[in-house]
Design a protein that fits this description.
CATH architecture of the largest domain: 3-Layer(aba) Sandwich
CATH superfamily of the largest domain: Zn peptidases
Helix content: 25-40%
Number of domains: 2
Strand content: 15-25%
Order of helices and strands: HHEEEHEHHEEEEEHHEEEHEEHEHEH
Structural class: alpha/beta
Radius of gyration: 24 Å
Distance between the termini: 25 Å
Number of strands: 16
Strand order of the largest sheet: 1-2-4-3-5-16-6-15
CATH class of the largest domain: Alpha Beta
Shape: elongated
C-alpha cells in the first residue's frame, strides 16, 4: 500500500466508520433500482454531516448531497481559454459512486457475507459508496479549504439498467449543476492503492444484438428441400467477425461476440428458425453509432445468399464509451499524486473492453474515470469470490476529496 500523504486531517474513528458502513452495505445488497435501504443509509449519513442539502429519489433511488465551500471568494466560471493559457478552476464539481449489487451468489466466506440469496456486491460498489461517504465527511469538516460547490452523486443501477441515464433524465445536472464529474472504480490487477489516470477512452461502449433467421425447414435427410437456417447462422457468425477484421480501421478496437445460438428440436429435423445473440463493444462513440447499420446490411446480405430471411434487432444497452477529458484527467492525476505520491500513479494501464455507465455523465459533462488498484493476485470483478479491499477505504475517500479540491482550484 502506498504511504498516506497528509492531505486531510483524518477524524477519530474515520476508518472504523467506513469499514462498518461498507460491511453493512455488503451484507444487505440491493439490485438495480431496488437500493432503498442503501439510499436511506447514504442520505441519513449525509444529513448528519450537515451538508447544505440532501436530495433523495434522483433517478428513482439515487441520492445527491451538496456541499458549499466557505473558502475566500467564489471559484470563477469556466470561460474560453486561449491556447497556451491555463484553464481557470470550476465553480461546481460532481463526485459519483455507484450503489447497486449484482444478481449472483457470493462464494466467499467473510463474516459479512451477503444475507440476500441471489444478490451480492461482487463489483465493489459497496466500497465505492463508503469511499464517497468518507469524502463527504472529509470535505464537510474542511469547507474553509475550498470555494465552490461539490455535489456527491450516489447512483443506482449501474449494472446494465441505466441508472446514470435515469438520474440525467430526472434533471441531475439542471438541479445540481456540475461543470466537471469524477468517478473511481476499484481495479483488481493493479497493485493496491496505485491510481491509474489517463485521457481518452478508458472503457468500451456496450450494446446487444439479436438476429432471427427464418427459413423453410424440413427433413434432415432431404436438405435440398429446405433453406437451412443453421448453415446460414454459421455463415452469419463468421461474417460478423469481418466487422473487426475488415470493416473498421485496424487501430480502432471493436469486439463483436456472438454469445448465443438457439435452434432445432431433433436430430433429424432442419428447423425453420435460428436465433443468434451477442454483444458489441468499441471505444469510439462515432463507430458505435455506425455499427447497427453495417451489421444489418451484412446480416441481410448473408441471409439472402442462403435463401433465408433475417431480422436484426440492436439494443442500446445504455453504455457509451467512457472517454476522459484530457484536462480533467490531468487534474485527477494531480489529485492522485497529492493522495498517494507520484511514484504510485500509473498512466499505462490498457483500456478495458468492459463497460461503465458513468460514460453517460461524461457525454454531458467533461470529467475523468479513475482506477484505484485493489491488488494483483485477487479475484476479479464479478467473480463470485470477489470482495472489495478494505485497505482502499481511506485512500479512496481522500482521492475523491482531492479530485474535488483540484477541480475547484483549491490548495
Amino acid at each position: 500500500m502506498p504511504p498516506r500523504l497528509p492531505t486531510f486531517r483524518i477524524p477519530p474513528g474515520f476508518a472504523e466508520r467506513l469499514l462498518a458502513v461498507r460491511h453493512d452495505i455488503h451484507r444487505h445488497p440491493e439490485l438495480a433500482f431496488e437500493e432503498v435501504r442503501t439510499a436511506r443509509l447514504v442520505a441519513e449519513r449525509l444529513e448528519r454531516l450537515g451538508l447544505d442539502s440532501v436530495t433523495r429519489g434522483v433517478g428513482r433511488t439515487g441520492v445527491v448531497g451538496t456541499l458549499v465551500g466557505r473558502g475566500a471568494g467564489p471559484a470563477p466560471r469556466h470561460e474560453h481559454v486561449a491556447p497556451g493559457r491555463a484553464r481557470p478552476p470550476v465553480r461546481s464539481v460532481g463526485l459519483r459512486a455507484d450503489m447497486d449489487a449484482l444478481p449472483m451468489e457470493e462464494e466467499g466466506g467473510v463474516a459479512y457475507r451477503s444475507a440476500e440469496p441471489g444478490k451480492a456486491h461482487m463489483c465493489g460498489h459497496d466500497g465505492h459508496t463508503a469511499m464517497l461517504l468518507g469524502a463527504a465527511e472529509l470535505l464537510a469538516q474542511e469547507r474553509e479549504r475550498f470555494s465552490g460547490v461539490v455535489h456527491l452523486i450516489f447512483q443506482p443501477a449501474e449494472e446494465g439498467k441505466g441508472g446514470a441515464a435515469a438520474m440525467l433524465g430526472d434533471g441531475l445536472f439542471a438541479t445540481h449543476p456540475c461543470e466537471e464529474v469524477y468517478a473511481i472504480h476499484n481495479w483488481p490487477g493493479l497493485p493496491v492503492g496505485v491510481v491509474d489516470v489517463q485521457p481518452g477512452a478508458r472503457m468500451a461502449s456496450a450494446d446487444n444484438f439479436d438476429v432471427e433467421l427464418r427459413a423453410r425447414g424440413g427433413h434432415a435427410a432431404m436438405p435440398h428441400l429446405t433453406s437451412d437456417p443453421v448453415v446460414a447462422a454459421a455463415a452469419v457468425v463468421t461474417a460478423l467477425q469481418t466487422i473487426a477484421s475488415r470493416w473498421t480501421h485496424p487501430v480502432d478496437p471493436v469486439v463483436v461476440s456472438v454469445t448465443k445460438i438457439h435452434g432445432g428440436s431433433a436430430h433429424n429435423v432442419i428447423p425453420s428458425r435460428v436465433h443468434l445473440a451477442g454483444t458489441v463493444r468499441c471505444f469510439s462513440n462515432e463507430l458505435r453509432d455506425a455499427l447497427p447499420g453495417k451489421m444489418r446490411s451484412l446480416v441481410a446480405a448473408v441471409a439472402e445468399s442462403y435463401g433465408v430471411g433475417a431480422a436484426l434487432a440492436f439494443e442500446d444497452a445504455g453504455f457509451a464509451a467512457t472517454v476522459n477529458d484530457a484536462g480533467a484527467a490531468e487534474r485527477a492525476l494531480r489529485a492522485a499524486a497529492r493522495t498517494v505520491g507520484r511514484d504510485h500513479v500509473s498512466t499505462s494501464c490498457k483500456a478495458s473492453m468492459g463497460a461503465e455507465d458513468f460514460s453517460e455523465m461524461l457525454r454531458h459533462r467533461r470529467g475523468a474515470y479513475v482506477w484505484l488498484g485493489a491488488g494483483v493476485d485477487v479475484p476479479g470483478l464479478h467473480d463470485p469470490r470477489f470482495d472489495f479491499n478494505d485497505e482502499l477505504l481511506v485512500v479512496g475517500s481522500e482521492l475523491y476529496a482531492n479530485m474535488a479540491l483540484e477541480a475547484l482550484g483549491s490548495e
